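During the reporting period the student researcher (J.K.) took over the structure-prediction task from the postdoctoral fellow and processed the backlog of single-chain submissions. One of the processed entries is reproduced below for the supervisory committee.
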Amino acid sequence: MSLPSIFEGIQSSTAIGAGTWYNLREAVVYIPDDVNSETRSVLYYPGGNGGIMEYGVPALFTYSVRTYLSEYSPSSIMVFWRSSGGNELFPTIEDSYQVLESIAREYNIAIHDLVLAGSSNGGYAAVKAAAYFLEAHGVPTSRVLVYDMGMSFAASILPSAEEYQNIARVGTELFLFDQKDINYQHPKLKKMTDNGVEVQLIYCTKDEHCHITWDAFSLGTLSWATGELDHISEEAYTFAERES
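J.K. obtained the following structure tokens:
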């Protein structure tokens, strides 16, 4: 499909970490200084009910994003979407894909080893996007990170059994950073694992809802997901034993 250049919609930019921060109306884009065929991609969705602003407050915590980029200087292309999509995930997911794809085309590379992440209600967008990107664009996701899923997985906008089977077939892993009242027997998690998806629950020491997202950025979990860090804080995170 024909896509406009990502650089046509840039409102401002600034150097940060090992790359450049670009402000778009719908997203913050980070592009590392060195982009080549090995460069990986990350797409993040914030929480909220679907708007860029929630009660006058931006849905995307740009301060935490800026802190993460400054401290960890990631070598991956990163798109931080400004809204979760809420209950209407489309066109949010398709639009976010087009931004990521347009960057790849600018640098003549393919999207690969994709990491999707989402906080609260943005977690639904991240999980659903893994299935959508594969079906609509043939792009597999390597890892999905969810930071304290909104409404404790109660919403009905998660993938179908068939969609889970499809992402399981390409090896997509789900890492769920959550509170200890969520376990592998939760019906929504069982649907994932029953359909072959590799799911890892990670309990957060500081398990207040928003704090889970703040820590996710400040402790570099996105860089861990892309393989740039070989571990995440054992003081902050406990990997729940997977059930057979």
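The committee noted the following: The radius of gyration is 17 Å.
J.K. will present the remaining backlog at the next meeting.
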